[in-house]
Amino acid sequence: MKKVSFLLIALVVAAVGFFSGCSPAKEPKKMETIRIAEVTRSIFYAPQYVAIEKGFFKEEGITIDLKTTWGGDKTMTNLLSNSADVALVGSETSIYVEAQGAKDRVINFAQLTQTDGTFLVARKKPDYFSWEQLKGSTFLGQRKGGMPQMAGEFTLKKHGIDPHKDVKLIQNIDFANISSAYASGTGDYVQLFEPQASLFEQEGIGHIVASFGKESGKLPYTTFMAKESYMKKHNETLERFTKAIYKGQLFVDTHSAEEIAKIIAPYFDDTSEELMATVVERYKSQNSFATNPLLDEEEWNNLQTIMKNAGELPQKVDYSTLVNKDLATKAMK
């Protein structure tokens, strides 16, 4: 009887082993989609495009749906109306939302750039440049209340220029139309992002004479942010998202401008790889690309100093209120 029992057990064990061996392999993890609204399309955001093109998001089980929303107000509208899950925009926008008493706070969780990304372009190439030359000129600036404009005003004041008295300041042109307005003859000077600044220099329309990024110091110029409710529901997904961004940042930091230009070329159809490499190198040389996603408190405070200096800080907001550093800290381990 015992022999029969042992035989039955042996048969059962063998059968279990057989069917286990024949069971289908585990299905691959389902990809999750994150919709990003980026404030503009710029080589300034190279680490993001590298993370997409090199498959760093895919490695983390994430598919990216990227759209350009052209302006901080439009980008934030997309986020608040749930047309986007994550916004890539200046941190000042989260402070504006907080000041309006939003019940669902907008939280900064991963920093992409750590300086201003604009350059001062002059109509005529000077033999030498000094900020004094702007006095009495027409200056085509960025949108009032936006980080580019505030960094611009901060820089002018730093050099003893009152932007509302010493120059004729134009701020009423839509963000997407500033470059075309300058190309058509408006303004002696203009504040531009890349690659437009270098394109103008290449075409003889203007000449880069100074960097607002070098002048205004480190700050959370462009960060990834999401609504607090979304972060609570998708915390683990956003941690993987932040890991992918960190991989992109490390790649940009450790590879040549030429290599990076080749990778991000699909995002800039009208720009040569040679010009893109020039722009990437310019940003790398002034440490504009953040080398990790952690937004630190010193940068946050510098941001509010610049906003206050421009008369655009509606209220001071503590670092811990609108910055989640946990995702970046975990992603960097």
Automatic annotation (TrEMBL):
Keywords: Signal. It comes from the Bacteria. Residues 1-25 form the signal peptide. SUPFAM superfamilies: Periplasmic binding protein-like II (SSF53850). The keyword Cytoplasm does not apply. Its main location: periplasm. It is found in: Periplasm. Belongs to the bacterial solute-binding protein SsuA/TauA family. This is ABC transporter substrate-binding protein. The lineage of its organism: Bacteria, Bacillati, Bacillota, Bacilli, Bacillales.
